[in-house]
Amino acid sequence: MVGPLILAAAGMGMVIAPSISTGTFGVAPQDAGVASATVTVGQQLGASIGTSLLNTIFAGAVTSYLAAHLASARVIGRQALNGLALAHGYDTAFWWTAGIFAAGAVISGALFRNGPLRPASTVHHRRRGTRHRIATGRTRAMTNNDSSDAHGRMLESVT
What is the count of structural domains for the chain? Predict the structure, then answer.
């Protein structure tokens, strides 16, 4: 019983922290609280809706199994039929869970961008194959030989 609990805890620890970090990456400091709250609300809503959906699937599977096998209760007994119905309900709910996770993995893989994450303040300028960003986050147009902004600050080259 302790082994699966430790495995689940390790898995959640490797998922929750990076998801919050990714969800709030590149947000301006004054908006960090709002971004963090939005990510947390999304997680809470997803957990609530997911729990209610899987509970509905479980209850429907148990009910349909009992209705379909009611006649066999005389042969195997009512308690055994209830146990089989519960096992069928859990089996159905776990298969739905696996399908939802697989669909989420495919969607997440399709939505991921290539390369490292960059803050929203990064400005991409096409100039001889390099990209530049202004250290303060301000943006402006660049000329062909210009590597500083309007205030004379040097731009960082991002490759």
Answer: 2
